[in-house]
Automatic annotation (TrEMBL):
GO CC, one annotated term: membrane
Protein name: Citrate transporter-like domain-containing protein
InterPro entries, alphabetized: Cit_transptr-like_dom, NhaD-like
Domain of life: Bacteria
Family statement: Belongs to the NhaD Na(+)/H(+) (TC 2.A.62) antiporter family.
Main location (coarse class): membrane
GO molecular function, a single term: antiporter activity
Domain Citrate transporter-like, residue spans: 60-424
TM regions (residue ranges): 33-54, 66-84, 141-170, 219-241, 262-280, 286-303, 349-370, 382-405, 417-444, 456-474
One BP annotation, GO: sodium ion transport
Amino acid sequence: MKSYSSILFLAFLSLFFSPLSFAATSHSTPDLTQSGVGYLALFIFAIAYCLVMGEEVLKLRKSKPVLLAAGLIWILIGFTFLRLGEIDIAKSALDHNLLEYSELLLFLLVAMTYISAMEERRLFDSLQSWMVSKGFNLRSLFWLTGILSFFISPIADNLTTALLMCAVVMKVGGTNYKFINIACVNIVIAANAGGAFSPFGDITTLMVWQAGHVNFEQFLTLFVPSVVNYIIPAVIMSLFVPTTQPDTVHEHVELKRGARRIVCLFILTIATAVAFHGLFHFPPVIGMMMGLAYLQFFGFFLRKTLPSSLAKKRALAEARHDEAALQRLGSVVPFDVFRRVSHAEWDTLLFFYGVVMCVGGLSLLGYLGLVSEIMYTQWDPIWANVMVGVLSAIVDNIPVMFAILTMQPELSMGNWLLVTLTAGVGGSLLSIGSAAGVALMGAAHGKYTFFGHLKWMPVIALGYAASIVTHLWINGHLF
């Protein structure tokens, strides 16, 4: 026998899933934008995203609320479409969204595994040590960390790059919180701008590339607008950075065996992914997974040759009477690919799943079609894409870009490049607008803050506007 609470729950659901609560068009996907179930799904997503935006304050990982929201939204869809006798439509949409996610998941997992392998082989520690040891003054370090962020992020993604450069700034800044804050703002702008002209620089650019709207080489047309986006605010902010010398202690970092070869394998992996996509029109993830095999075989080689390598190094250290080298040999561990896989940013990957499923659910309910009709039919597409960048500063650019790709608006190549640019660099307007900004607020807690970033928003907005004008000017023939 059903309990009284169960009967009440079913009665509540019936209010939302009643056939009278929405209109359905025959032989097409039902329009649920003005139904109780549609409003409830929107409410669930809004609550989840408020929790995501409050991640820094609540100390609640951003993946948790969107995973729960995704499940609840698809429960609502399941009940509704089952009652309508259209469950096959819902199942087809679910399969499509899962396929979209699985391709991106595997692609990002391989990229993150390579980055983790480089980190474990101390490649980034070596780069950090080099910068600290060169005796640069604060303004020079401001420019150096920014420029390196701009050129590393197209390969290593903006989040990893920002965290690496933040570690340098924290080390040389010490108690100079003013320098740390302005340098972190500079890093966020540079990392986001650098990631905008490469499919590997940000998840949003990867999504556009995998969707086939922009070819690999066409991203390079965004290089000059990306430079403009970074240079203008950087020049203005640099005037407020002193030329004093920081107090730093040099630390010698020795690369672990195979570090440089892993970099070469990563470049080969990128080339393989591009070749699969360019030559055969296969999803780039096929090439990335093949690249994971490169790393696995190299890991096998490192493990098998470890004893002989250690013996040679030990003999050399003993011949030189180098006690420090002998001590370092004792800490050498075999390379394990699967341990590197476990170190991937799983919170980001699961957050991405929740976003894909939530946005996919809202699309099935008809909301994205409604938004697409307003933005890309009633508005000029250029202004719509400019607003996408502003929206990316408030809401994470991943759901914004996925929503646009799900809408599938009819855009010229110039406009696809424009929305790629604005979604990538628009997140720099606020510290919460990009993964790089959110990560640095955690890494430099109390030193790089939301309001510390906010006071530089006018000059960042100047760079944002200038990059759009630059794109419209030099790539006008693509519109």
